[in-house]
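Question (not urgent): is this output format expected?
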Amino acid sequence: MRLTSKGRYAVMALVDLARFDNINPVSLRDISLRQGISLDYLEQIFSKLRKKEIVQSIRGNQGGYVLNRKAKEIKLTNIFEAVDEKVKTVKCKKESKKGCNGRATKCLTHNLWDELENHINNFFDQKSLEDLIKDNFERQNL
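Got this back:
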């Protein structure tokens, strides 16, 4: 199981955006500089986020991106789904009778990995952008 850089960078960029977007639209260039993420890669990520209506782009001289909803309404699960990131701990499909190893039955530890996947996805479903901003703020002020 592994989150790709696409999923991690999407979350990082949106937390950055959420910290600043109540003031003005935020440019991808600014996010790129602050977070050390390639501008080209951010453009690809934000294209997907825009299509899933997590962000909207504002054109013009003072343009950039803003969140389409409040930070507390955007769950990490929404972000991962928008950028086609899936957190899976097993290769087989849950509804399949066959296991990941190609055999007729699932392996002895299949239920363990399946349960872990459920815990991870529930965790991401409970965490919002606002939670990450608050956590970051609290850690900086310790």
